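Q: My collaborator sent me two sequences in one message, no labels, and asked for predicted structures for both. Can we handle them in order? The first one she listed is below.
A: Yes, handling them in the order given. First sequence, followed by its structure tokens:
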Amino acid sequence: MTPRDQELQSWIDRIGQTLRRRRKELDLSLEDLSRLSGATVPSLSNIERGKRDVKLSTLVNLASALRIDLAELFTDDASETNTEAQNLPAGYDLEDD
């Protein structure tokens, strides 16, 4: 795995952890979130576990269903400072396939 692939996987993992944490804060099951967001339960499970890349449109739907700002999916826990987002290489595009 290249350093860029490792960094991308780190972001995918972080987003999944944030989604899971927020879903649990709202006391929602995967089925509940599926109904609210339009994403399937297996997809949600894979996203939360960092096993699936996710489209921006899906993230928008999930953020809306979880009543959070989309930007919150790209930030670390409140106890940490997110310096990685500020240090992305020039031309780094999260939507690259």
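Q: And the one she listed second?
A: Here it is, processed independently of the first:
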Amino acid sequence: MINHRGKVLFEYQGVKKARQTISRQKNITYDQRFIGQVLIVLSLDQDQKELNQFLLIAILVVVGVVLVIFITTGALLRHFISQPIASLQYRMDRVAQGNFTNASA
């Protein structure tokens, strides 16, 4: 904020080297006399940073969920398909070797 003499009354330097900015400048008048000037600069960098963080978290969550689904599916397939087939193969090998006693155990 600048007064009519050009003296800076208020200045905030929170935005440094922003890539995307929106700025507006307006003269302040009272009774047709120039009494100061206001310059407002807004940056989209903070919003972009927050969006990037959100995107990273979303990607990590999706990767984690997919990983849990694959691990769970593998464990269920092993328990309900692979183990019974391995047991059946073991029993059939015993029968093929001529061991007919207790073939179902």
